[in-house]
Amino acid sequence: MNKTSPTTPLPQELDARMARFGLRVSAGLTEHSETLSGDIQERLRFAREQALAKAIAARAAQPAAAATSVQATGGGTLALGGGDRTPRWLKAAALLPIALLVGGLLLIQHSQWYEQIRSAAELDTDLLSKPLPPAAYSDPGFREYLNENQADPNNPSDPNAEETKE
């Protein structure tokens, strides 16, 4: 039940394979070059020089392009985009969505708090603005409530409140 999947070789392994293939081809060409005519030898020499010039140019351009996109940092990690040279505005822009989220949540909380206060105020206004039914005056609890408010020393409508404070 062991299934082996073909793995993709690493870039270093590919480079090593290409270098070995190049050495084999060059060894084969060098071995048979004595049997070739002078014109063919000259054309092959010119083609080798062109191929070497292209390979040198490609190798010189390759590390510069790779260094700008992926840079190795300490501890075996990779940083995209240049690592430590990230502009400050880019770091600040990364924090902007978090700041907007926190601000939105605070705004929602404040609006809900305000809505609760407003609904409680409307309920109190409705209760206090309506006239009392006649049955409320005959209720013994209401009479007790009125008596408690008149005996309260902090009640400014009580004429005896001044005397009890002194």
Automatic annotation (TrEMBL):
Start-end of Polar residues biased regions: 147-158
Pfam families found in the cross-reference section: DUF3619 (PF12279)
Superkingdom of source: Bacteria
InterPro entries linked: DUF3619
Region (Disordered): 132-166
Protein name: DUF3619 family protein
